[in-house]
Design goal:
Largest sheet: 5 strands, mixed
Helix content: 55-70%
Catalytic activity: ATP + protein L-histidine = ADP + protein N-phospho-L-histidine
Mean pLDDT: 76
Main location: membrane
Number of strands: 9
Order of helices and strands: HHEHHHHEHHEHEEHEEHEEH
Number of helices: 12
Protein name: histidine kinase
Keywords: ATP-binding, Cell membrane, Kinase, Membrane, Nucleotide-binding, Phosphoprotein, Transferase, Transmembrane, Transmembrane helix
Strand order of the largest sheet: 4-6-7-9-8
Low-confidence stretches: 1-20, 276-282, 381-392
Pfam families: HATPase_c (PF02518), HisKA (PF00512)
Length: 447
């Protein structure tokens, strides 16, 4: 897939938080693989009788283990590009230190100094890539200057005639496997994210088109109200004049009555068509409970009872189609897996406004909790009518993308009393609305 197409398909929502440059669990997995390889290399070096400061090497590897253990406390959280760059910088420094302790650039595994900058080139913005490239240059230089010689003695269990040659062979093979596997992994993640964001864009575009169409109809109903009223008034006066001037022309009286009836019918049609449009276009703010009721309305008759518990204070929020669509997806997922009840709670403090959606179903699978919200992740059962469709696993991803675009952050967990729960939290300044703010000018209709 061309890089330009990838960037166009990812930048779908202006103003949304930038997508994570590389998933945290991917960095953790790659670091565990590197740690395993480093320990294996240390063991192989001891077998062939290589001399190096073993305690220092194990201490440097232990630092990487400690970092990974700390990061595994929240492996599913979203990380910005800057944090990813710092983690790759740590990996670079760790590998450079190991090389300095084991022969410097003469060590065959010096090739692996390229791994962090390769990851940065595929996943990070240019400024972070440049910083990591400069760091790689410095680390390579320092590893060469402060290198401690690697010696080989006869005390090894296995005697190799050309240990460095064997080491170079292993380094090239391991490097080829690592770089190809990583490139494949990143390409798969980028393609999956791009496809999922493309589906999210289609869903949002459909919602926005309906909103704009309704707004145009509402404006048309408003603008046509005056001429329709004029037609009705003139036709009434004309009917009176015809009754006085031509009392025997009943056909003309019927025609004038038909004009009045047609005007009334046009008024009723425009009013009914413009009702939803006026809501979408002019109601820019609404109570949070009403926004949640609108989001839940398509799922009220699907088997599960939906209860919306209001906050102690009356919360007025921005009424945005993307937010409603995201909340609707979360509620749909809760209804799909609920045994019989979905509870929606709202609340606020001085800084934040939150919505908590809880169902009484089996809850999220514990093994999938760190990945909830990723694209194409689904455990949806097969349909009861026997169809093989199981869902694409995009509902929660689309909801997460749309709500994060509005400034929210989401937490997926299993409720203490059982069932799944999703907590959506906004900073007050991102979602709260002024209840008495001006609605703005009416839209202009051009022929």
């Amino acid at each position: 897939m061309p890089l330009g197409l990838v960037s166009r398909r990812i930048d779908l929502f202006p103003g949304q938080p930038a997508p994570e440059p590389i998933r945290l669990r991917t960095l953790i997995l790659l670091r565990w693989v590197a740690i395993a390889g480093q320990l294996a290399a240390v063991g192989a070096a001891l077998v062939i009788g290589a001399g190096f400061p073993l305690l220092g090497v194990l201490l440097v590897i232990g630092l990487a283990v400690a970092l990974n253990v700390m990061l595994m406390a929240r492996p599913g959280r979203r990380i910005p590009a800057r944090e990813a760059a710092w983690q790759l910088g740590f990996d670079l420094a760790q590998v450079a230190t190991l090389l300095a302790l084991t022969g410097g650039l003469a060590n065959p595994f010096a090739l692996l100094l390229l791994a962090p900058v390769t990851i940065a080139a595929t996943a990070l913005p240019p400024r972070h890539l440049l910083a990591l490239g400069i760091a790689t240059f410095l680390m390579v230089t320092l590893a060469a200057i402060f290198a401690q010689p690697l010696t080989f003695g006869p005390q090894g269990l296995v005697a190799l005639r050309e240990p460095l040659l064997v080491g170079h062979w292993f380094a090239i093979v391991i490097g080829a496997v690592f770089f190809s596997a990583y490139a494949r992994l990143v390409a798969g993640e980028v393609n999956a994210t791009s496809d999922a964001l493309f589906a999210a864009r289609l869903a949002l575009e459909r919602e926005q088109k309906l909103q704009h169409l309704g707004g145009v109809v509402a404006a048309a109903a408003h603008e046509l109200g005056t001429p329709l009223a004029t037609i009705k008034l003139v036709s009434a006066e004309l009917a009176d004049e015809l009754a006085d001037a031509l009392p025997d022309r009943e056909d003309l009286a019927e025609d004038v009555a038909l004009v009045r009836q047609s005007a009334d019918r046009c008024r009723d049609i425009l009013n009914s068509m413009g009702g939803a449009g006026r809501d979408d276009l002019l109601i820019r703010s609404a109570p949070l409970t009403e926004v949640l009721a609108e989001a839940a309305s398509p799922h009220q008759d699907r088997g599960a009872e939906i209860s919306i518990l209001p906050a102690p204070e009356r919360l007025i929020v921005q009424r945005d189609a993307a937010v409603i669509h995201g909340l609707r997806n979360l509620i749909q997922n809760a209804v799909d897996f609920a045994s019989g009840r979905v509870t929606i709670e709202t609340g606020a403090d001085r800084r934040n406004i939150w919505v908590r959606i809880v169902d009484d179903g089996p809850g999220f699978p514990s093994g999938l909790l760190p990945r909830i919200g990723s694209p194409f992740l689904t455990t949806r059962p097969r349909a009861e009518d026997g169809r093989s469709y199981e869902g694409m696993g995009l509902g929660l991803f689309i909801a997460k993308a749309l709500l994060e675009r509005s400034g929210a952050w989401l937490n997926f967990a299993n409720a203490p009393q059982g069932g799944a729960q999703v907590v959506v939290t906004w900073p007050r300044e991102m979602i709260e609305a002024e209840n008495r703010a001006a609605l703005g000018p009416n839209p202009e209709i051009r022929s």
